[in-house]
Design brief:
Elements (H helix, E strand, L loop, with lengths): L2 E8 L4 H4 L11 H16 L4 E11 L3 E4 L3 E6 L11 E6 L2 H13 L4 E4 L8 H10 L6 E9 L4 H18 L3 E7 L22 H16 L2 H14 L7 H10 L9 E9 L2 E7 L8
Parallel strand pairs: 1-8, 2-7, 2-8, 3-6
Antiparallel strand pairs: 1-10, 3-7, 4-5, 9-10
Length: about 290
Amino acid sequence: MGTLALAAKITHVPSMYLSELDGPHKGCRQAAIDGHKEIGRRCRELGVDTIVVFDVHWLVNSEYHINCAEHFEGVYTSNELPHFIKNLPYAYSGNTKLGDLIAEVANEMGVKSRAHSDTTLELEYGTLVPMRYMNADQHFRVICVSACCEWHDLGESEKFGLAIRKAIEERYDGTVAVFASGSLSHHFAPNGRAPEFMDNVYDEFLEQTDRNVVELWKRGEWKAFMQMLPMYSDKCWGEGGMHDTAMLLGVLGGERYDQGVEIITPYFGSSGTGQINAIFPITPLAN
């Protein structure tokens, strides 16, 4: 029925918003912003109607949660980094129907999930930052999925991703893009030293590990990557436990996935963390 048209791992660093503003960091994240705009352009070309974001800034302690309100609107200031993102206005349409279908399929597959449409839940900045550049004209409807999963298993998050793929292709009448919105390594600069790490990764070990992971992705060596993912997330402080990445790989078919990624924005350091924009080619799920 429906179509999964585009899948990507994307950055959402708050310095992208700072990059717009006059001051010493103006333009510092232009490459990342341009990458988001290119991904948005491709979504338009492919006829995408809804973007589903796996957002590592939405922390949950039990079950998987889908924010699929009919409409989102507000003015956002980050409680984590209020000096980076403040007074950011936003307004997007949601997609209750698709959110309900995702929860329905996930629960049928044994992954306890809940869709929230009648809710005062707001969007987090893992969704708001990319939507600012991909969806400034409110062309796409938006669904936010909790991906900071404190007490969840990465294998279960992969299964949840598969449920999303099945909900799209088997029960939804439309065209969808999915984004894993989170970093690679995620060690912030220690307090008081942030300026020296503004455009750098915190440690050489983290950067070299990230760069080797990106090479695995480019070669399509997903079985090897998925075997290392739990340790990678643990030792490199994976953002949100890297559940966004596990969900994305579940969407794509898990260890059977064999495609190399297309790098849209090359790997870069930001406030100590490792970041990238990369598109994952979509192939049919193996039977």
